[in-house]
Task: inverse folding
């Protein structure tokens, strides 16, 4: 973490914030609510905490996380409690966060990962100039489950051709990931990493293996949905996801060093665990052209936007 952000990090620690890592997971899970986007889920927050340097605290019944990622300005996310509306109100929360930001030396308050359905509420906060924007790299790819599993039509030609070959391989099988065997995912990840450029891979989101280690630590087969893809009975690929709400399943991790097996894993996770849901969310492409091309050729998709609101006060801009 760069020096200026390190000082800010210490400031927020003094203000009662605590690391939003796997130790904070019991708190984070209570604020997952009915979020549909991956970045607002407890699993993604806690497993990738090492990259974003997140600190969390509850304020007026909201969960607030402030992030200190080196490649982005300091920003916040706002989470509503599961099972109901917060006791506090957004106006008062923004006032509190803006005051904290200014006392910490920030020129503005920036809140990210705002779902489209909540955007109007953020833009209606009074007393601020509110700048709204979004980054194309942040869009999350959502597929209707029935479309994702449908192998008919021109739109599914590429997927159908690749999967048909795998369907015919008699030595491929799947089995659920259990708590006892979750650590095998790390062995598969190591095999995948063997011929990859670590610096290039980590340049987009940090080291995925580190995030997977955290996922293995919090993995609980009662809540997370995982499958091993096995060749001749030996695990050679894995996928881990979660039913985030009654409409949406999210795939957090999926990997195999074998060609086309990644697609097969996504298909089988959807068919096995998410078939009764409306959507499967495969997260963003983080600006990686290869990931973007892959996700846009899986079939019919929707782009779920996450917005950024930056709050400033005119009187503070001249100081």
Result:
């Amino acid at each position: 973490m760069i020096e200026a952000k390190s000082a800010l990090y210490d400031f927020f620690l003094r203000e009662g914030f605590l690391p939003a890592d796997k130790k904070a997971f019991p708190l984070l899970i209570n604020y997952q609510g009915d979020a549909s986007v991956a970045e607002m889920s407890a699993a993604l927050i806690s497993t990738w905490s090492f990259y974003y340097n997140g600190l969390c605290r509850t304020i007026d019944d909201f969960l607030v996380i402030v992030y200190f990622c080196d490649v982005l300005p300091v920003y916040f996310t706002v989470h509503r409690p599961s099972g109901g509306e917060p006791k506090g109100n957004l106006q008062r929360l923004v006032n509190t966060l803006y005051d904290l930001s200014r006392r910490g030396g920030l020129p503005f308050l920036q809140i990210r990962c705002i779902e489209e359905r909540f955007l109007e509420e953020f833009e209606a906060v009074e007393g601020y100039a509110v700048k709204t924007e979004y980054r194309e790299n942040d869009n999350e790819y959502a597929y209707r489950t029935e479309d994702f599993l449908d192998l008919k039509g021109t739109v599914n030609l590429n997927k159908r051709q690749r999967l048909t070959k795998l369907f015919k391989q008699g030595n491929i099988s799947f089995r659920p990931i259990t708590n006892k065997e979750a650590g095998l995912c790390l062995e598969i990840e190591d095999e995948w990493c063997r011929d990859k450029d670590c610096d290039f891979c980590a340049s987009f989101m940090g080291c995925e293996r580190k995030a997977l280690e955290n996922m293995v630590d919090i993995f609980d087969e009662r809540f997370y949905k995982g499958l091993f893809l096995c060749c001749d009975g030996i695990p050679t690929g894995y996928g881990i996801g979660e039913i985030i709400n009654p409409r949406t399943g999210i795939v957090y991790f999926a990997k195999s060093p074998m060609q086309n097996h990644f697609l097969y894993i996504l298909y089988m996770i959807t068919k096995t665990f998410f078939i009764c849901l409306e959507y499967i969310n495969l997260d963003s492409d983080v600006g990686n052209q290869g990931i973007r091309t892959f996700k846009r050729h899986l079939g019919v998709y929707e782009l779920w936007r996450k917005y950024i609101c930056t709050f400033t006060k005119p009187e503070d801009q001249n100081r």
Notes: The chain is about 35% helix and 25% strand.
